[in-house]
Amino acid sequence: MTCMKLAAGAAGAVLLSAVSVLAQAAGTVEFDRAMESEILGWDLDYSIYYPPGFDENERKYPVIYLMQGGGSQTHNDWFLRGRAATIFDELISSGNMPPFIAVAPNARRTPEPEFNTYYMNDTDGGVRWEDMFVEEFVPHVEATYPVLASEDFRAIAGISMGGYAALAYSLKYPDMFVAAAALSPAIRTDEQIVNLDQPGYDRRYGKAWGMGLEADARLTDEYYSYSVFEMLENASDEVIGGTEFFVDTGADDIFFDGSVLLHSMLRSEGETERTLSSNHRFMIREGGHTWDYWRSGLPEAIRFIGDVIED
After folding, report:
1. Domain 27-190+228-310 maps to which CATH number in 3.40.50.80, 1.10.260.40, 3.30.565.10, 3.40.50.1820?
2. Strand partners, 249
3. What is the pTM of this model?
4. In Å, how far from its chain's centre is CA 51?
5. CA 68 – CA 133 distance, rounded (Å)
6. If pLDDT is split at 50, 70 and 90, which confidence band does 297 have?
7. β-strand partners of 283
8. What are the residue ranges spanned by the domains of the chain?
9. What is the dihedral of CA 280, 195, 193, 262, to 10 degrees?
10. pLDDT single digits (tens) 78-96
11. Chain-centre distance for alpha carbon 296
12. How many CA atoms lie within 13 A of 140 on its CB side?
């Protein structure tokens, strides 16, 4: 009986110790920080994740920019609905990811929130979200937080509309990100843009490409300047090879066709095979355009980024 009590006591002590270690291994999230933006004309809200042990050292960390989806989503959804902090903690604690900082900017408009930004500049210059991100936000993060200000340690990840941004920004700025992970990227083919219902087109793209445009008239110079497919068509191997890509799309996702086309273009161009398996990973899993899908795919996407950073 005494031995059993001692064994039980020892086991309890080990369990309490393990719980204590796990508790110490939790990172922290600060919600709704703000950056004053001259380009936007309003304060940009963002949330930031700090890894376990952040307060215990003065090191600098890799940084991942987290790009939210459209509609009613906000930057906070990464942590409130996506449980990203818990996922990040587990990846870091298990050694599958080096400690890193993650920053999620709010992509919604303060004026006219019913219109998506899609992370683009408005065609009339009214809202220049892309310019703000490149010229103000990334420099603000690198000046304010202990992140490694180098392409080798800077990555981007996005869901839906944010997945589009991860791909588009990586192609437009090939020296900015070492890796880009896109979960269910909201990329539509030319045919899908032409056939999109009018309210849906205006809400998503009207501000960037022209309000009220119908059918083929939507395929403007502004549209092509932001089309991931057009960027790939005209990009050199050097530009495409500047960032390693991870794309994960559900078999029942509304953007399935666009993701498959993207995968095909990354593999080859015209009659010349352009194999890019070393910097391009494509996944199809069961599921649709939902938070359940994104939560289940986020660990592998972040592991991909970690492998690139540590390579």
Report:
1. 3.40.50.1820
2. 284
3. 0.89
4. 18
5. 14
6. very high
7. 248
8. 27-190+228-310
9. 10
10. 999 999 999 999 999 999 9
11. 15
12. 20
